[in-house]
């Protein structure tokens, strides 16, 4: 409980710079920025109290006068990202486009800071960054007809999809870097071998679909396509829920008839 209170205090309140053991001229913001830069450059595994202290030119014990432990440091890092992230203006009156924009903003966050997608969202940092982000993103569902719990669940659903997509993209890049081949190069090299292995008579559907998908997407997995296709299905699912609500007619952001769920 004491550590949790300490983290909340660090997230919300400025601490006096004169605290005993601190380096003159070094601030908590500089500590957090150094940790973020390290994670951006080398990944989350590189972030430790000792390594961040090294980057700042101080001994590890000095760092502990700013942050109690690595868990608190990670909370501060994520909340700083949330506070600084782009929040696109909700110019479209329809909920669908507003939610699409929220998804895009979060995807861009993970593009710039891939390590953030690795962290669990089950216990987010309860700081000003998170609260500003939550408030902004909830507005995307205003007027949709969802109740409070459904709105929270819908946002969690969207953000979970974006985070999963970001993780998949990071993993695909890591595989390409380890193999020193692009997906297209891997597919070109593996295709002739797979032709010999796959039995068209035994696996007719798998061969037919796999060939078509591979030819269209340039490999077994295409992160851009997976995100675009998946986001539309997420929005379609939410549209089905929203359109089921009683009302005088179709809600803003949806349309009735063939192709319902597409943008207004």
From TrEMBL:
Q: Where is this region: Disordered?
A: 245-264
Q: Where on the tree of life does the source sit, at the highest rank?
A: Bacteria
Q: Which GO terms describe its molecular function?
A: DNA-binding transcription factor activity; transcription cis-regulatory region binding
Q: Name one GO biological process term.
A: negative regulation of DNA-templated transcription
Q: Name the UniProt key words of this record, in alphabetical order.
A: DNA-binding, Transcription, Transcription regulation
Q: Which residues form the HTH tetR-type domain?
A: 25-85
Q: Which residues bind DNA?
A: 48-67
Q: InterPro entries of this UniProt entry?
A: Homeodomain-like_sf, HTH-type_TetR-like_transc_reg, HTH_TetR, Repressor_TetR_C, Tet_transcr_reg_TetR-rel_C_sf
Q: What is this protein called?
A: TetR family transcriptional regulator
- Whose protein is this, by species? Pseudosporangium ferrugineum
The organism that produces this protein has a lineage beginning with: Bacteria, Bacillati, Actinomycetota, Actinomycetes, Micromonosporales
């Amino acid at each position: 409980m004491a550590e949790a209170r300490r983290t909340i205090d660090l997230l919300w309140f400025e601490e006096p710079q004169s605290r005993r053991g601190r380096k003159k001229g070094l601030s908590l913001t500089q500590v957090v920025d150094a940790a973020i830069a390290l994670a951006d450059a080398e990944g989350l595994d590189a972030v430790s109290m000792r390594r961040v202290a090294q980057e700042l030119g101080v001994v590890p014990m000095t760092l502990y006068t700013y942050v109690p432990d690595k868990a608190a440091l990670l909370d501060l890092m994520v909340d700083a990202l949330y506070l600084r992230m782009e929040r696109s203006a909700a110019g479209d009156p329809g909920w669908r486009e507003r939610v699409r924009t929220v998804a895009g903003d979060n995807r861009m966050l993970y593009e710039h800071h891939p390590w953030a997608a690795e962290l669990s969202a089950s216990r987010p940092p309860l700081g000003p960054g998170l609260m500003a982000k939550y408030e902004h993103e909830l507005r995307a569902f205003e007027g949709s007809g969802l109740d409070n719990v459904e709105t929270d669940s819908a946002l969690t659903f969207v953000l979970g999809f974006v985070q999963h997509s970001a993780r998949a993209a990071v993993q695909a890049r890591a595989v390409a870097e380890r193999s020193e081949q692009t997906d297209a190069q891997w597919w070109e090299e593996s295709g002739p071998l797979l032709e010999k292995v796959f039995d068209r008579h035994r696996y007719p559907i798998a061969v037919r679909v796999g060939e078509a998908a591979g030819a269209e997407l340039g490999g077994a997995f295409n992160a851009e396509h997976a995100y675009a296709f998946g986001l539309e299905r997420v929005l379609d699912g939410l549209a089905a829920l929203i359109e089921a609500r009683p009302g005088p007619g179709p809600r803003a952001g949806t349309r009735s008839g063939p192709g319902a769920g597409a943008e207004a």
